[in-house]
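Ticket opened by: R.M.
Priority: normal
Category: complex prediction / small molecule

The reporter submitted a protein together with 3,4-dihydroxyphenylalanine and asked that the result be attached to this ticket for the collaborator who will pick it up next week. Submitted input follows.
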Amino acid sequence: MPDQDHSPLSEAAVERMVAEALAAIAAASTVAELKAARLAHAGDRSPLALANRTIGALPPEEKKAAGQRMGAARARVNEALAARDAEVAAAELAASLVAERVDVTLPVAAAPEGAIHPITALIDLMSDVFVAMGWEVAEGPELEAEWLNFDALNIHADHPARGTTDTLFVDPLEHHQLLRTHTSPVQVRTMLHREPPIYVVCPGKVYRADEFDATHVPVFHQIEGLAVDKGITMAHLKGTLDHLARAMFGDITTRLRPNYFPFTEPSAEMDLQCFVCHGESVGNPDLDCKTCRNEGWIEWGGCGIVNPRVLAAAGIDTDVYSGFAFGMGIERTLMFRNNAADMRDMVEGDVRFSRSLKGEAR
Ligand code: DAH
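Result attached by the on-call engineer:
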């Protein structure tokens, strides 16, 4: 058969097609290239497939040999494809494992850390001093009834603190609601809800129509203490406050200075000996102590024996029970404890301020 060599089914032609297919398969180095090679050399329109279709036109005696040749040729191509497929997939996996490798031991840029606000930390610390002595922590609302903030505490209607220049009343005025000016109403709330013995501290926010400067802010924090039991005396008050003062400031001298509060009788101011000059500046013309203004003492908070009128207003039998109470500013305590000179730092919310006192106030 003279034209047999030019037939697409000749041994030479098939061998050529197989050789081209194997070369393309071997040259494919990615999954995508191999896919293209498969399409070109083993797909429906590949030379081998097209040649295969011509078998039907052969004389019957040639069909078998041609069929076997084509079958063997396509099997070789398919085997080569399968083998290369496995190699290429393995190589791509190995390459991506290298490319996507993460060194988990490398240092990372940590997200900036926040900090507990020093006022929050100090409230926790002061409350803990009392919890350790078996006291409870009580809280009350910042929007308070005028009666609880003033009347029940024996603060008369004509007391100057009840004016709109000092106190923030809330509309409508006939509802007699205000932003509490101190934490003392929580004393009354506690006594109204609980039977003695009562030992509670009440930390929280208070509001006054004040300036905003280094030593005044219109919103600040106080901690109130109240003990009601049988036989409570001024000695229990002094011992308790001394314990708190030592927990806050270490070895420090305190004094009670007579004062007046409508809700306590007798009343006193708890003073701390000046921790800067330790009293040395008193009467000493060579020393000028800015912290105590040469008085030797600094005022920390008010206190006293609960006025029986306050106990009675809250329904407590004054023949059986007596009590002591105290209240002091948290910001002021932070100023003394951490040398924080400007109260505005405490409300501005700059995390650097909180961080600078981190651990200190805890
Ligand atoms: N409520 C007072 C104030 O805001 C502080 C105070 C004084 C509280 C004497 C007390 C107390 O419980 O007994 O200035």
